[in-house]
Request: fold
Amino acid sequence: MNGAEALLKSLINAGIEVCFANPGTSEMQLVAAIDDIPGMYPILGLFEGVVTGAADGYGRMADKPAATLLHLGSGFANGMANLHNAKRAFTPIVNIIGDHATYHLALDAPLTSDVPAYAALTSDWVRTPESAEAIARAGVEAVAASMAGRQANLIIPANYAWTEGCEPAKAIAIPEPEKVSPERIVAAAESLRSAEPSCLFLGGKALRERGLNAARRIASATGARIIHEVFPARLQRGRGRPTIERLPYLGEFASNVLKDLKHMVVVGTQAPVSFFAYPGKPGTLWPDTCNICLLADQQQDQIAALESLADYMDIPEAPPQKDPALPNIPKGLITAEAVAAVIANLLPNNAIISDESQTSGAFTFEYFDAAAPHDWLCLTGGAIGQGLPVAVGAAVACPDRKVINLQADGSAMYTNQSLWTMARENLDVCVVIYNNSRYAILNLELARVGVEKPGERARSMLELTNPRLDWVSIAQGMGVKANRVTTTEAFQFQFEQAMSSKGPRLIEVIL
Reply:
């Protein structure tokens, strides 16, 4: 057994079932190993940003890592934007990065780069095994490291991969998440018992149903508000689940939402800050008089922390919640609001939504509080081009669930190769493209930094016209059935068709 085969067998032993890949010459031994050893399903992405984004979506839904297979430093660099998003989502991923043979590095061949330095930009777990025989052990250690909600970057020199005489390693135990200290629970309870305006500020796994139920239990007894971070990795929402506030994206709106707070108990995220700096505006979003109390960080057991806090405060179960009403579906010319109303009304039970709708979805998020129970996946790190590949990964992780990707047109162009993978794997994904032919969010940001009347050249850098993108042709060219709509009635018909059938489909909404 060579090093590549020993590594692959070890990864399978450790529970990895899927490899999202865009390999090159230095990874051919690993490609051959996947062909020869059963237990690992390979999925090709035509761009590394698709590969890493898909691994992010898979990890969020499966709660375990997929492997990626990336070609040298340049291939890894191509996938770094979605690795940034995955890092912010605390998604477990094992990146297998091929490198030149150890003796070839000194020749400085054209694709030579400092792969460990590249890999260190996304994670503090970077390993180049010291020998071919050490590859297998490093593989299972990478899986264990990733389960703490991080990326494990494993670099495999080509000569180690083809060296014979290697043996696979057994999986190693995955440690349980750290429990929060009693002192933190006491401090949080004191904050919430103060009778002053307070909130639970939630992110991470605290936004799973069990965590939300515990938070609602606390809020119903203390009067605290429940607010979640702007872009959660995975939010379980819909009918029968607690309805909570979303912090607005724009800093001034967020500050206004938080302005009266005296206590903020933070769980599974960090206290909220503005996405960017703006002239004359603060970076932190809570008032100076607000006490910040961290109950559980991203690596700790956030759900257990909330339940322990509720038990410590001797709080009974919360009374039943009245679900909000579904939005009315308008008629006539299509709008972003009409799209959301249709989807919220027709959303299948237990669907998954990958949301990169940007400005088109800015005012309709609350529509889905009344929809069927579902999971909502967001653009955690702000690096656009996430929505399509995250939908790919979610569909692979949950093949029995419908996936809907709410997708802005400009962001979609970063990773539109995802459509090809959807078609090749026959993934059950409905992509809804909001085609407004501009980077609308940047038009807003231009005004927010004080540019009141941008000139023609500035406007040209934010508009997606001349030529206008044709998403029906793009999708069909990659093997995905697609239709274009301009009215609400037409969209509803196409969306109903997509929900009643299997396989990938794209609906282009002209706004």
The chain has a mean pLDDT of 95. The first helix runs from residue 3 to 13. The two ends are 57 Å apart (CA to CA). The first strand starts at residue 18 and ends at 22.
